[in-house]
């Protein structure tokens, strides 16, 4: 198995209500799961291949809960990546060179039956995890944004976090609101639904825990 490590930041938006029941091993809000996510690697490698300052994104759709399978996914890799970097990122996002089910990418891949041809596109991505703000744009494919949840009575910014000591994606995620539209092979229209902002630190054996 090729060793790899990624440290970076992500923004993810799914069709569930704020909080997302899936984070608590419950069924998704509407019975199905649709999501788009983007991430930037601040430091990373796949074997000897450096992945620093690269970006990637994914669009996913399952007819029921993720664990029931039969999903479809579209992977998008930063057009700035060279051939070796493209191959590395795609292998990581397809759950390859990874202990099974130890990262979100491995879980998604195992629960997917249709993998569309990958795209190599410019990815405009900004995320501030602490502020719960993000922007994800892949021209003609994804237009998404994240923002804080606001109190419906006062308009004040509301803050909530999810702590998953044994999760396969992050240790702590800041929760906000996401709105995303996707085009092409998977069409999504998410509006003011679950938004997730998190620091990523992952290897081929799972999440690197700060407490360890």
Structure description:
The protein has 212 residues and is mostly beta strands. It has one domain. It contains 2 helices and 16 strands. β4 and β5 (71-78) form a beta hairpin. The longest helix has 11 residues, at 83-93. The mean pLDDT is 96.
Enumerate the spans where pLDDT stays under 50 for 5 or more consecutive residues: none
- State the end-to-end distance: 23 Å
**Helix and strand run:** EEEEEHHEEEEEEEEEEE
Main structural class = mainly beta
How large is the count of helical segments?
2
Radius of gyration: 16 Å
Fold blueprint:
Elements lengths: L3 E11 L18 E14 L2 E2 L4 E8 L8 E8 L4 H11 L10 H7 L1 E4 L3 E3 L2 E5 L4 E6 L3 E6 L1 E2 L6 E2 L1 E4 L8 E11 L5 E16 L2 E2 L5
Parallel strand pairs: 5-6, 5-7
Antiparallel strand pairs: 1-2, 1-15, 2-3, 2-4, 4-5, 8-9, 9-10, 10-14, 11-12, 13-14, 14-15, 15-16
What is the gist of this entry?
With 212 residues, the chain is mainly beta.
Question: Which features does this protein show?
Answer:
single chain; 212 residues; mainly beta; 14-stranded mixed β-sheet; two-stranded antiparallel ribbon; 2 helices; 49% strand
